[in-house]
Amino acid sequence: MGWTWIKKCPVFFLLTVSGLAFSLVGLAGRFSMYKGYEFQALKEPFLVLMLEGAGKGVAPWEVCFGQRASGKGGKETVATVGGGGQNIEDFIEDDSGAANDGMEMDTGRESADGTDASADAGAKGAEGTEDAAKTDVSAGLDAPADTGTENETIYEFQQVPEDYFNDAAFIGDSRTVGLYEYGELEMRADFFAKISLTIYDVFTEPVAKDEETGKRITVEEALGRKQYGKVYLMLGLNELGTGTTESFMEEYAAVVDKLRELQPDAVIFVQGIMRVTEAKNESDPVFNNANINEKNDAISRLADNKDIFYIDVNEAVCDENGNLHSEYTTDDVHLKAKYYGIWREFLLNHGIVRNRAKEG
To answer: What contacts 24+ positions apart, CB below 8 Å, involve 63-68?
Structure first.
């Protein structure tokens, strides 16, 4: 009979060959162009990686050139960087119609008045104009306590006014997009946030805009052009299914080092990954709180309490068992709109004010 069955079932043959070829592409790009994707190797075929990349505009043959996925297809929050100050704009790339990566799918988001809204926590355009001048509020706040050692100072978290964020930059994934959209900080701080952003591509994704040229630029380029007093970083949710805690932290530490290089005078806040609900925790072998807690414990060790500080919003949004309050979310992962205010209040109660004159 030989190969005559191919003539009888050409469609089946083509599907089989294509599936095998695409699976090989997914396997080849697992730790390069697709490494930032949430993927469960024992439960999903490698074909999933290729399809996810294709949905984001990454051609299968790009694996041959070692290119990383561009991340198209999601919503992103773009801060305009240049002569005009902190004018927040949003860009939505939806030409591919692709779904969002891994855990970055947000459904049933509640609006600020408590009604359901179906849109993802995407970037919204800021309305109005900002205050003409933004000033450092540290001069009007209490000075930190002295340890008694001449050149050492202990900094303690303290409550700060909202203009504390006038010189702040927030970097993160969809949860930070939600903070921008519903946290009432968008007219003060700059946000460099995008659905599906990971620690692996935080410096390569074009999530900022140069005001003078209109050109899309990366976070690295944006931070190189403007100096901030505070930089807030929250990444790690999408990376839970990729690699190990050790490999994740190697990349995370490198990102923090780069932030320090780009922003030498800024206070860097490394934020713990927000946990998931009890239902999600008990049903998901990857996106669970044990995995999140392990990553957070490692992240916390980066803090030196001098210019790098660890803060954990889980203290404010989790129940007595350490799970995200179920009433705070509709998808077990992202906060409803009206609860982003809890995150904002947590940040206002965990400010760090440094006495520059005393340090010098």
So the answer is: 63/25, 63/28, 63/29, 63/32, 63/33, 66/32, 66/33, 67/33, 68/32, 68/33, 68/35, 68/36, 68/200, 68/201, 68/204
Measure the CA–CA gap between 19 and 303, rounded to whole angstroms.
Answer: 46
Which uninterrupted H or E stretch holds 92?
strand 87-92
Predicted local distance difference test score (pLDDT) of residue 66:
42
Q: How far apart are CA 319 and CA 322, in angstroms?
A: 5
Would you state the pLDDT for residue 154?
Answer: 76
From the list 223, 127, 125, 234, the residue with the least C-alpha distance to 174 is 234
Which 3 state secondary structure label does DSSP give 49?
Answer: helix
Residue 322 and residue 289 in contact, taking contact as beta carbons nearer than 8 Å: yes
Long-range contacts of 17-24 (CB under 8 A, 24+ apart): 19/47, 22/47, 22/50, 22/51, 22/60, 23/47, 23/50
pTM of the model: 0.65
Would you place residue 248 in the very low, low, confident or very high pLDDT band (cuts 50, 70, 90)?
very high
